[in-house]
Specification:
Blueprint (H helix, E strand, L loop, with lengths): L1 H12 L13 H7 L19 H9 L13 H12 L8 H5 L2 E3 L20 E3 L19 E3 L21 E3 L24 E3 L8 H8 L7 E3 L11 H8 L5 E2 L2 E2 L2 H6 L54
Parallel strand pairs: 1-2, 2-3, 3-4, 4-5, 5-6, 6-7
Antiparallel strand pairs: 7-8
Helix pairs in contact: 3-4
Keywords: Leucine-rich repeat, Repeat
Protein name: LRC43 protein
InterPro entries: Leu-rich_rpt, LRR_dom_sf
Length: about 325
């Protein structure tokens, strides 16, 4: 579950170990909780020298420090480590859940978004890319959520996600999943996502362009849409039909829609017959290697000469 993965993530950060946490090395913690206890000469268990929070932070930030985080660590990692120095009481118990507005758990083996996620009462951004999530229950998502990224999972049904979706959600990322149309189109309307600005449905198995557009038209705040990688994107009039059907759209498939392009496709939305769900693929084989040249089989023009016939079978897979 996501809660279990998050707890393991906190353990991996070692927020209780030097230079983080409530330790005898943190001068501010000692002043705030107890007086430093100095060991007598020869006595075992001597405490470490006290350091100011600023000095401890320098140990986290200096790239030459043995306690420094790797250069490619996330902003979330740095935030938690530094808070564990400046205010270690905030990373104890459930207080850490109130600290984060953005949670990024990428490629951590998450299979379930469980009820424990509701403890993140301030969470606005949840990034769960490259996990193993096939279904997600919206009742387990904080109501404060504005960004939900589920790219590269195995989501194949949106019904549970749309039962009680976060009302303020502005971006929904479902690229590289297993959504099949047209059964999922009905969940992509303003009834479920009244504040959606950005929607990524790329690289799924959506096939019904007309049906999908009829639902997306209800998303009055939608400005960014990604549909590339779906079978419906192979339809010749795909881009033009979308540009004309969604007049408020600003970016389609990561390409800005300029006024002259919108003018060029004007009226295409009123000709749905041009957007048939059919595709013709023409394959041209420019060169073949390893086939004997015809000259090798040329024979003399006599009745006694044998007739040599060669046949070849070529397959093209895509």
């Amino acid at each position: 579950s996501l809660s279990a993965v998050f707890q393991e993530y906190l353990r991996h950060l070692r927020l209780q170990d030097f230079p983080c946490g409530f330790g005898s090395w943190n001068k501010s913690c000692l002043n705030g909780h107890r007086s430093p206890r100095r060991a007598q000469p020869g006595q075992k268990g001597a405490v470490l020298d006290e350091e100011t929070p600023e000095a401890l932070l320098e140990l986290l930030r200096d790239q030459h420090s043995p306690w420094a985080l790797p250069p490619d660590c996330s902003a979330q990692d740095r935030l938690l480590r530094e808070v564990a120095v400046l205010a270690p009481e905030l990373i104890h118990g459930t207080k850490v859940y109130q600290l984060l507005k953005s949670l990024r758990m990428v490629d951590k083996g998450v299979e379930e978004v469980d009820e424990g996620v509701l403890q993140f009462q301030q969470l606005e951004e949840l990034i769960l890319s490259a996990n193993h999530i096939s279904r997600i229950t919206s009742a387990n998502l904080p109501r404060t959520l504005k960004v939900l990224e589920l790219c590269c999972n195995t989501v194949d049904d949106l019904q549970d996600l749309c039962s009680q979706p976060p009302p303020e959600l502005q971006h929904l990322g479902l690229g590289h999943n297993s959504l099949c149309g047209p059964s999922q189109d009905k969940f992509l309307t303003e009834d479920f996502w009244p504040n959606l600005i950005s929607l990524d449905l790329s690289f799924n198995n959506l096939t019904d362009l007309l049906g999908l557009v009829s639902q997306l038209c209800t998303l009055q705040k939608l400005r960014i849409l990604v549909l590339q990688g779906n079978p419906l994107a192979l339809i010749p009039t795909y881009r033009g039909f979308l540009v004309d059907s969604l007049p408020k759209l600003s970016i389609l498939d990561d390409i800005y829609i300029w006024p002259d392009e919108r003018q060029q496709f004007q009226g295409l939305a009123r000709q749905p017959e041009l957007s048939r769900s059919e595709v013709r693929v023409v394959v041209s084989v420019g060169e073949m290697k390893g086939v004997p040249a015809p000259s090798a089989f040329q024979h003399q023009d006599t009745a006694e000469a044998p007739v040599i016939t060669c046949s070849y079978f070529v397959t093209y897979e895509f």
